[in-house]
Amino acid sequence: MIRLLRSTNRAYVRDGAMKMWKTFDPAMQADPVHRGFRTMESLNEIVLPPETGFRLNLDENHEVVSYVREGGLLVRNSPHGDALLGPGFFQCGSTHPWMTTQVPKTSPQQATHLFLSSMKSGPKELDSSYEHKRFPFADRQGKLRLIASPNGEPASLRSRMDVRLYSSLLEKGSHLVHELHPGRGVWLQVVEGRIQLIDKTLDTGDGASIEDELAVSFRAQEDSEILLFDLA
Fold first, then answer.
1. How far is CA 158 from the centre of its chain?
2. Domains plus CATH for the chain?
3. pTM of the shown model
4. Beta strands 145-149 and 157-158, pairing class
5. Which of 83, 110, 148, 174 could form a disulfide with 157 if both were Cys (CB 3.0 to 4.6 A apart)?
6. What is the pLDDT of residues 122-163, one digit of tens each?
């Protein structure tokens, strides 16, 4: 079963200089995924101009995975210290009230484009954790590169949740297949481009949930980038 969520149906939020598109919006009660998909509660696309930032306000029962696609992000996460994340960096960690982020001043035109997802666990299932790593674009070209997994293999970020996040950059005509194991579901997000998912076309900003299928099979109709969440 495949359900589509078009980019035009995402909630748009403007908070000062920050622009945000929310894939899941609790206010949209008629939307079957308004509260998220499986353990993923939110998947937000964010654009921030230089010298702006935001503060994460989730509790310790959440894990956050962020992806810096363009620009840079200065993350302040006590007691781990500051970290400057550039393009291609992914960050995985349990959240704390004191985790804040800021876009460094590189140039007046250099905005930061990032994706921020959060997964919810049961009470006290998560230990405090924080890890980030750069996954070069070349390593994600033409394949599903594992970014985060429960065991941190192979060379992926370690997630405290039963989630496997993949990233891929596809040239026009490239075809990928991801096996879907029983009891699991996939959220496929088109970061940029256009892909063919069986008989459905997804464009930039579109997403789809896939359940009760043997595999997820898609082809790039133009140069594209996707994120794929494999969730329990």
1. 15
2. 2-231 (2.60.120.10)
3. 0.91
4. parallel
5. 148
6. 655 556 667 899 999 999 999 999 999 998 888 999 988 899
